Known about the structure:
The chain is α/β, with parallel strands linked by helices. The chain is built from 15 helices and 12 strands. The strands form 2 sheets. Strands 3, 4, 5, 6, 7, 8, 9, 10, 11 and 12 form a 10-stranded mixed beta sheet that branches. The protein is globular, with a radius of gyration of 21 Å.
Amino acid sequence: MSRSVNRSGRRQFIKTAAGGLVLAQAAPLALAQGKQQIVVSDPGGPYSAAYRRAFYDPFEKATGIRVVNVAREAQPVAQISAIVKARNYIWDVTTLTLSADIPYLEANNLLEPIGINPADYPQMIPDSVQPNWLGVDVYATVMAYRTDKFPGEGPKTWADFWNVEKFPGRRSLRRNPLDTLEQALMADGVPVHELYPLDVDRAFRSLEKIKPHISIWWTSGAQAMQIIQNGDVDMVSTWNARAQTAIENGAPVKIVWNEGLYSIEGWGIPRGTPRAEMAKQFVLFCADARRQASFTEDLPYGPTNTQAMQFIPPERAAVLPSAPENLRNMALPSPEWWAANRQAVTERFNNFLIS
């Protein structure tokens, strides 16, 4: 279906309400045909189930547009590039991370403009609304430690993590410069909100100090969860959902939100898909506060719509990255800085590990 037909055949279907953006009325053309669909790619596993319940099924019910979800590879940038260049639109929407994916995709004109103005979304957290991307959930890289190893006062800062005399024990960091360089700088005294531009030389000098005390450089979220849950290490840099899963599995683990680094994950549309109008309807639907609150029941990622918090039980909200008390002392890694420096810094980091 062409964009012009789709655009002229639909009514305005979103309106602003106390709970955020809600669906006002479905596209009549979609309901009439009953066979329209979009293909949405997500990370698979628990994401697929959570998105299905919070977003996919409610959108289908509201519009009559079927959502077919497929699992994608860990890094979608190369796949989107291939899709757009070949004009082989196996996806219409995909999850993308602001810091890691959006700068490259924008610079190479690979995303379909969604046509939204961040100023029209005052209920959304900063940076979660872009002209061609909408963030729907927040995750964080945090410190987690074993409370059986530190039953009293455990580490509270990255300087504590680096302090092997005061907090002896086995440590683990991510085998990736993203987040790890920031942690090294905070350990060396740089405030969390004054990290950028990163002082790379200073970061590597800091990493040299802790390198002999790192037992494991982890490479996947599953590994990070297992090593802290099983007690293979006593403290770790990890993603908050992995630490929370270890806690829910009964491990004596505590999350330290202070000096965390949060990231925003959301939806982008490959430029040129013939189903762009339906894809945009779906993306906007996911800004709804109640839909985002529903997502947090399955996975401990925070909503980007701040009004969603009123629909989340307080005990659940307390373990979400975008809870105000957690977000206050965290920073968003600079997408612009990493887009300009990631390749060179990654090469240096890999050489650092083997030297």
